[in-house]
């Protein structure tokens, strides 16, 4: 049985689809920029202190990982799949790991590092619980939602 759509609803869906497509394009541009930043960080790491540069490179990799997760979630949403709540936890984990890398460059920030490690641990447990729930509720990646 086919749903009847009101004319306003059809225009609204087209508008949202256009906005979501624009969002995918913007995220893709940010991803390309982050990859360029990664290569710049690698070049800078080779020229200067290796240990400090390594933290910067790892931070850039985490940014790329988070952007790729967001891009994948947006594309899945455009393909009609349900939005996974775990993507937001992944973004939080990435942010705290990046903060931990930045804090490791400053020697006096040991207490700050403990807080970040605890936050990463709690977010990781939350992520595991969410992925388990998403899998059992049928929002796993291999399933096509309509």
Largest sheet: none
Structural class: mainly alpha
Strand content: under 5%
Task: Report how far the terminal alpha carbons are from each other.
Answer: 14 Å
* Quaternary organization: single chain
What pattern of helices and strands is seen along the backbone? HHHH
Q: How many β strands by DSSP?
A: 0
How many separate domains?
1
C-alpha geometry: flat
- Total of helices: 4
Can you lay out the helices and strands and say which pair or pack?
Blueprint: H1 7-47, H2 50-78, H3 86-104, H4 110-136
Describe the protein in words:
The chain is mainly alpha-helical and 146 residues long. It has one domain (7-136). It is 79% helix and 0% strand. It is built from four helices and no strands. Helix 3 runs antiparallel to helix 4. It is flat, with a radius of gyration of 20 Å. The model is unreliable at 141-146 (pLDDT under 50).
Could you give a short description of this structure?
By secondary structure, this protein is mainly α. The chain has helices spanning 7-47, 50-78, 86-104, 110-136.
């Amino acid at each position: 049985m086919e749903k009847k759509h009101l004319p306003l609803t059809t225009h609204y869906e087209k508008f949202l689809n256009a906005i979501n497509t624009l969002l995918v394009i913007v995220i893709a541009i940010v991803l390309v920029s982050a990859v360029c930043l990664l290569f710049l960080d690698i070049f800078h790491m080779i020229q200067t202190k290796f240990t400090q540069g390594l933290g910067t490179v790892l931070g850039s990799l985490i940014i790329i990982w988070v952007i790729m997760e967001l891009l994948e979630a947006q594309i899945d949403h455009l393909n009609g799949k349900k939005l996974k709540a775990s993507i937001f936890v992944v973004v939080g984990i990435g942010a705290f790991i990046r903060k931990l890398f930045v804090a490791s460059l400053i020697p006096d920030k040991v207490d700050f590092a403990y807080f970040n490690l605890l936050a990463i641990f709690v977010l990781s447990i939350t992520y595991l619980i969410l992925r388990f729930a998403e899998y059992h509720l049928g929002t796993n990646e291999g399933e096509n939602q309509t």
